[in-house]
Write a structure and sequence with these properties.
This protein has one domain. The chain has five helices and no strands. It has helices spanning 2-5, 9-30, 42-53, 58-79, 82-85. Helix 2 crosses helix 4. The radius of gyration is 14 Å and the shape is globular.
Length: 98
């Protein structure tokens, strides 16, 4: 709701969709077996960041992972278990972020 009321709402939604599409395309090309949320790991996300955003600013990498991180927060209690996936958690520390 806040996003839709913000003056930057349309741009934010467009950016969000762009990064979602980019990640899904990367998964389809590079991690064909990662077809469900319970198969997603931090290492896959790190590989994506290195492959697509290496050399980019920490802010760009953080924004690119926002759809993944926020959706993971929603999906965590539904599909992940600590026993199967270790301490994946909600957050994703991106190298260079402080």
């Amino acid at each position: 709701m806040a996003l839709s009321n913000a003056s930057r709402g349309a741009k934010s939604k467009s950016d969000w969709n762009y990064y979602v599409d980019r990640f899904i395309d990367w998964l389809a090309k590079n991690r064909k077996t990662c077809t469900h949320w319970h198969l997603l790991t931090r290492q896959i996300v790190r590989d994506y960041l290195v492959s697509v955003f290496d050399g980019r600013s920490a802010t760009t990498r953080r924004l690119a992972t926002q759809p993944i991180v926020q959706t993971a927060g929603y999906m965590w209690p539904r599909v992940w278990t600590a026993e199967r996936h270790g301490a994946v958690g909600y957050g994703l520390q991106i190298e260079g972020d402080s």
